[in-house]
Design brief:
Strand content of chain A: under 5%
Oligomer: homodimer
Distance between the termini of chain A: 42 Å
Largest interface: A-B, 36 and 37 residues
Chain lengths: 219, 219
DNA sequence: GGTTACAGTGAACGACTGTGCACTCAACAG
DNA sequence: CTGTTGAGTGCACAGTCGTTCACTGTAACC
């Protein structure tokens, strides 16, 4: 019930009695840059971030930014990688033994719910930039396709889907991913009080989709 | 096969022999502002547009912009209204007599395809800003919910859906809308050569969803 | 212990931003 | 015909932006 991944590490609690090595300091400022960027991104698109404010938020002077990234776009790519790790963690966590449909559905929705609430910034960034255009959207698109591909492979292990063509499996996986993305956006837009209703609807949608599976003919 | 809506009217072909009234000139510059904005938005989010470049594109000086909109945000809202008209036109065009599922599915997908290709800028703007945050995303969200509500009412007329609760009807409508949105994004990201494949997949997804309908129990 | 590598500094640049203000000049109302 | 209205102009302003360059101080290396 608590295998969420939290990457927030803004400040170490203890003073650096250990004088902290040089490269560790560097890594720390790099992470501070990523963290403040993600924080600022809570309510605006990436393209409106300025190098200067990210640097200021991380506590360094603007020009020092270049010691870590060649440009804001490069930071954006790093951000995609970081948030993508969360996504993969979620997938790993949701992978379950071929059980009943209903069990799989509610477990998956619960996992999504839990990861979204534990890493709101990451998912906000991902869903916001997914359709935002530019290189970030493309990078996220690639990642989501990989994700969907993995899901297709997982689905192939279920008995009723053994006979499906890989094309149809991908179609189903994409459908499920798009339902999940919709759910994620709904969660991010709502107050946590409405979580139960949203996850309930999500489960219904997935049930309806999977209800068609036994009657599918590829035509 | 050609009831698409094209709002592009950058320049009138004929010289204004009719001296054009004052308010008509004003409307024309206003439209020029909206048109250039939409054009610039083809490959970047709205938040990165500057008042100055929109004004320049419309052929007026920056300060004259304020004769038409109090701020860029107000122009954005007007843009949402404009693109939303296209969306409603699409819905009107897709409304069809309760026929076979398959007929309804392919007709709807064809309508979406046709409208997207005829108004790429509008749909690009809508899908880009839908998740972009800020007041525009909220305005678009409201509009999409209306759209989904209308669809739910239409769905209620189909025999197999007569007995469904309104809640479940909304769930189904949302599901269909999200499939359609996914399809729209795919169309906008792909070259027109791949249109057939994309619409084919879209039809499959809808077929699968509707296949579950007869077996649905709200549970 | 002397030297080097390098994260971070601070001033400066040219370009671009939104907005205020006084203006022009043609369509309109009386 | 005369006076008013208002879309569009031109200048000016105070900020912010990304990026340059020469610099400082210290951890790491031989």
């Amino acid at each position: 019930m608590s295998n969420a991944v939290d990457t927030r590490t803004l400040e170490p609690v203890s003073e650096p009695l250990t004088p902290v090595s040089r490269q560790e300091r560097k890594l720390r400022t790099r992470q501070a840059l990523l963290d403040t960027a993600l924080e600022l991104l809570a309510d605006r698109p990436f393209a409106t971030l300025s190098l200067r404010e990210v640097a200021k938020g991380a506590g360094i002077v603007p020009t020092a930014f270049y010691r870590h990234f060649a440009s804001m776009e490069e930071l954006g790519v790093a951000l995609v990688e970081e948030t993508t790790r969360t996504l993969r963690g979620m997938m790993r966590s949701a992978r379950t033994d071929p059980d009943t449909y209903q069990g799989m559905i509610s477990a998956s929705v619960a996992t999504v719910h839990q990861f979204v609430r534990a890493n709101e910034d990451h998912f906000r960034f991902l869903t916001r930039e997914r359709y935002g255009g530019g290189p970030l959207a493309r990078a996220i698109g690639v990642e989501l396709r990989l994700f969907s591909g993995d899901l297709a492979i997982d689905l192939a292990r279920f008995a009723p889907l053994r006979s499906w063509s890989t094309e149809d499996l991908h179609m189903l996986a994409d459908l499920i991913v798009s339902v999940m993305l919709t759910t994620i956006v709904e969660l991010l837009e709502a107050r946590p009080a409405d979580d139960a209703k949203i996850t309930g609807t999500a489960e219904k949608r997935l049930r309806l989709v999977l209800l068609g599976v036994p009657h599918w003919k590829s035509a």
